[in-house]
Amino acid sequence: MPATIAQLLARPDLGLRLLTPNVSAALDARIHWAHSSDIDDPTRFLAPGQVLLITREPGEVESYVSRLVEHGIAGLGFGTEVVRAGTPDALVEACTRLGLPLFEVPYRTPFIAIARFVADRVAADTYARNTWALRASRAISLAALRPDALGAVLSELARQIERPVALVGADGELDRAYPAGALTAVERDAITAAAEPLLRARRRAAGTAGGGRGGGAGADGGADVDGGGSADGSQTFALQTLGAAGRLRGVLAVGSAGLDQAAQQVVTGVVALAGLALEQSRATDAARTRLRTAVWRALLAGDRALAETVAEPVLGALPSGPVRVAVLGGTAIAAAADVLETRPGLFFARDGHDLVVLEEDAAPSGLPELAARFDLRGGISAAGPLTELSSALAQASAARERADADRPLRGFDDIAGGGMLALLDTPDARAVATAAIAPLADADQDLPSALRVWLDHNGVYDVAARELGMHRHTLRTRVAEAERILGVDLGSFAARADLYAALRAATRSRD
């Protein structure tokens, strides 16, 4: 047990006498050290949790005691018969009023005896905590040999530190918590909310969740516990990502209130063990990835019976009925695949550098959120039967070609609904269109817009001229000028269609 003022007062050989009985609640606070100093402001040489020993009355008693309280000093001892007889009444009153434990040290008791008692208890407590940490680490290491190594390690950690332990999966959902039922709904929400940005960043990091400082006593009763919690009663949790940068496997959350250094060392070891347990599953993950790719290629080849036979024992049943195919690309498709592993009702596979997803048309799609989270771009096909998978893949690939930063995930239904001219909404088409109409803009910057209005009115000069605010003969002259510049006859449908497509694509480029 660590040293406390209550233990100091209980030692008959020290002969200490408490002068502030109203602060009994503070007598059980841990003492980290004992130090003597008679200077006016000793706080610069002290640390919170220490006991200060003095022999003379301070000059400004009220401000002196106030500084000690604000600095977190655990108690004040006054040595009598060195400078003066008895403890000053002003000092007793100030300590009583401000809640600082004050005890009287008789002349026969040297300050070094008090310091030695505290030092011996600190050393004994440190040894006990280190012994506990070794014992706890051994128990956790043995737990790692059980079949469910990860679950056994986390469960043993929760038992040893007497704090709740939770694991958030790569998908951002709470995967498991120990002991069962230890987390409140508020704590679960706080943990998952705090884990989400850590997973999104895709790099090793740490954080905290919750605002409380509550928690039970530490392992063996030796942790330094700060009582209480947040307003909603939730605890504070320390969060640490698991896995390698770029492909995080989850986030470990540990109730951190009152954990001392020994307990924190045990937690650090568990972070390494948990990360190792998750990394060891990568060999299995690699085999599942190859199996998924084989199933996908069998589906593309039209051998559905083979694909279902191979997939069902390991991957589960394949989607049935009308399905949609999504093709996703980006630098984080491996991390995205880890998230998809947790989602039932769909099939996914790696196809070269792409991630293909096959899901039932009626199922709610979480692909937009997935694309945003991992900065992916892709396309989704229209719904169709599995027998037309190749056509659906072509649709998804065509839709992906039109994905951009503003619309990272494009649906083929939207593109098809826009008609053939919607296919002009690509960088290549815009570049060709801009180059094609550049001679018109060079000759007259208003000429392209005039031609667009004329074509929008089906080449009817009177209607187009009224909208443009010019005479129809002036518009005829401009159209003739465009024919001369482009070297085409705009009386033909093909020439008009080609010019209209170029004007529309170039206009989208400027927009």
Question: What does this 3D model show about the protein?
Answer:
This protein has 511 residues and is α/β, with parallel strands linked by helices. It has 18 helices and 15 strands. The chain has helices at 5-10, 61-71, 89-98, 111-143, 149-161, 185-201, 261-280, 282-300, 304-315, 333-340, 367-373, 389-400, 412-417, 427-443, 447-456, 461-468, 472-486, 493-510; strands at residues 17-18, 33-36, 50-54, 75-79, 102-105, 165-169, 174-178, 206-209, 237-244, 247-255, 323-329, 346-351, 354-360, 377-380, 409-411. The strands form three sheets. A five-stranded mixed β-sheet has the order 1-5-4-3-2. A five-stranded antiparallel β-sheet has the order 7-6-10-9-8. It is elongated and about 120 Å long. Mean pLDDT is 83; it is low at 212-229.
Short descriptors:
511 residues; alpha/beta; 5-stranded antiparallel beta sheet; 18 helices; 47% helix
Chain-wise SSE layout:
Elements: H1 5-10, E1 17-18, E2 33-36, E3 50-54, H2 61-71, E4 75-79, H3 89-98, E5 102-105, H4 111-143, H5 149-161, E6 165-169, E7 174-178, H6 185-201, E8 206-209, E9 237-244, E10 247-255, H7 261-280, H8 282-300, H9 304-315, E11 323-329, H10 333-340, E12 346-351, E13 354-360, H11 367-373, E14 377-380, H12 389-400, E15 409-411, H13 412-417, H14 427-443, H15 447-456, H16 461-468, H17 472-486, H18 493-510
Parallel strand pairs: 2-3, 3-4, 4-5, 14-15
Antiparallel strand pairs: 1-5, 6-7, 6-10, 8-9, 9-10, 11-13, 11-14, 12-13
Residues in helix, %? 40-55%
First and last CA, distance: 73 Å
Strand content: 15-25%
- Tell me the total number of β-strands: 15
Low-confidence spans = 212-229
Number of helical stretches of at least 4 residues: 18
The class by helix and strand makeup works out as: alpha/beta
Largest sheet: 5 strands, mixed
Report Rg: 38 Å
Give the strand order, joined by hyphens, for the main sheet.
1-5-4-3-2
Shape label: elongated
Mean pLDDT: 83
